[in-house]
Design goal:
421 residues; mainly beta; RNA Polymerase Alpha Subunit, Chain A, domain 2; 9-stranded mixed β-sheet; 6-stranded mixed β-sheet; 7 helices; flat
């Protein structure tokens, strides 16, 4: 008689078979999913910023081999397609490091599940220094000089020291904070808020440090010396109404416009508002010119302490006028051998615009109108004559020819009568 299998054993066998079937089904499912959504690796197009973690109150990072990193990610294709650089955190932990230069591993994390990330490079070289601050003096550095005859008083500055902060090595190199004041052409009191510039012992600017305060208020009185007065100057032009006929004064420029004079206070108090230069004669001038002339002082007790002469540029131009010449004969040139030409009319009028002296010098016999027939065969034409003058005169004037077109009939004198008909 067949012995029956114990119930307990049958249950265990069924459980084993069920577990094996379940495992096999999971493997088949996993294979199917992997085939449809495979595991891939790709590099993000955008680099990720590196977050440096350290005590910003006591330390300062002075250098780094890189501030960003390339991110490589691995995971299923569907997850990678949604991944952006905003989902990635790349950090470098410097919190336990002493001052100096260090190689620090980068740590990359993804906010999305089932994605592993790595970076290129995997570590960076950084420099750490202690953060330091100290007081340095504020110095006034003047650029340029006040105009002659002006003096300045004692500067009034809102602060005479400032605190420089930054990396210890940079802070120690700062010798002073410079307050730079421009003096060129300054004739009135200086009241301004100026930015301080950190300088080292050689006067070079120290970068990557901060100053507190970064700006200070400065006030400097600027005034004229009591024994000096500034007086405007005017060129003394003689013969403006006696310029050569046809010429006019078109421009006047001079430098300097004023001079500083020194002398007894009684003389300075009675000075006129304007000094004149030595006379500048215009009666024989027909073109622009420049001249340096002295200033005429009203008293022998006065001394000019600025420039002794005035540079004057005078513009003189010929007046523009019009002049009409009637009955100017037309001269034919370039007519081929064996041809004859008849023109209507044989005289023209020239209307000339230009400088008055040039027009006054022109004579009727100097004028011609040229009709160039070079290369023309027998026939009827309408041509424009060209005015003729000396080259130097032609370059100075504009000429209109009236009438603008001339009727021209060219005939072949050797042609037979039958051919001509």
């Amino acid at each position: 008689m067949q012995q029956s299998i114990p119930v307990r054993k049958r249950i265990i066998n069924n459980i084993v078979w069920f577990a094996g079937s379940l495992a096999l089904a999971f493997v088949v499912w996993l294979f199917a999913v992997s085939a449809r959504d495979p595991i891939e690796e790709r590099r993000l197009a955008e680099r990720a910023d590196i977050q440096f973690v350290f005590d910003n109150e006591t330390m300062i990072m002075t250098s780094t081999s890189s501030e960003t990193a390339i991110v490589r990610a691995r995971g299923q294709r569907s997850n990678l397609s949604l991944l952006t650089v905003e989902d990635i955190t790349v950090s470098a932990d410097l919190s336990e490091l002493p001052p100096g230069t260090h190689q620090v591993l980068l740590k990359a994390d993804s906010r999305r599940d089932h994605i592993s990330v790595d970076t290129v490079p995997r570590q960076v070289t950084i420099g750490l220094e202690l953060r330091e601050s100290r007081l340095v003096p504020i110095t006034l550095d003047y650029a340029g000089e006040l105009p002659a005859g002006f003096v300045m008083g004692e500067p009034q500055v809102s602060d005479m020291q400032t605190t420089v902060r930054g990396a210890a090595s940079l802070v120690q190199s700062v010798e002073a904070a410079s307050l730079q004041i421009a003096l060129d052409n300054q004739r009135s009191p200086i009241v301004t808020s100026a930015r301080l510039v950190p300088l080292d012992a050689e006067g070079s600017v120290v970068q990557n440090v901060t100053l507190e305060p970064a700006t200070v208020d400065v006030s400097i009185s600027v005034s004229q010396r009591p024994d000096v007065r500034e007086v405007s100057v005017q060129p003394n032009l003689i013969g403006v109404d006696s310029l050569p006929e046809g010429y006019i004064l078109t421009g006047l420029n001079y430098e300097p416009r004023s001079v500083l004079v020194s002398g007894p206070s009684t003389v300075l108090e009675s000075l006129p508002e304007t000094f004149f230069t030595a006379p500048i004669e215009l009666s024989n001038q027909t073109a622009d010119f420049e001249v340096s002339v002295p200033v005429v002082l009203p008293s022998r007790e006065l001394v000019i302490i600025s420039g002794q002469t005035i540079n004057v540029a005078v513009g003189i131009t010929a007046q523009t006028a019009n002049r009409q010449f009637d009955g100017v004969p037309i001269e034919i040139i370039g007519l081929g051998d064996g041809y004859t030409a008849a023109i209507t009319p044989n005289e023209v009028t020239l209307l000339i615009t230009g400088p008055q002296p040039t027009l006054d010098a022109l004579r009727q016999q100097d004028l011609r109108a040229i009709l160039d027939l070079n290369g023309l065969a027998a026939g009827t034409y309408q041509l424009s004559p060209e005015p003729s003058l000396a080259l130097e005169q032609l370059s100075q004037v504009r000429i209109s020819v009236l009438p603008a077109s001339i009727d021209v009939r060219i005939e072949d004198a050797l042609a037979t009568p039958s051919a001509a008909n």
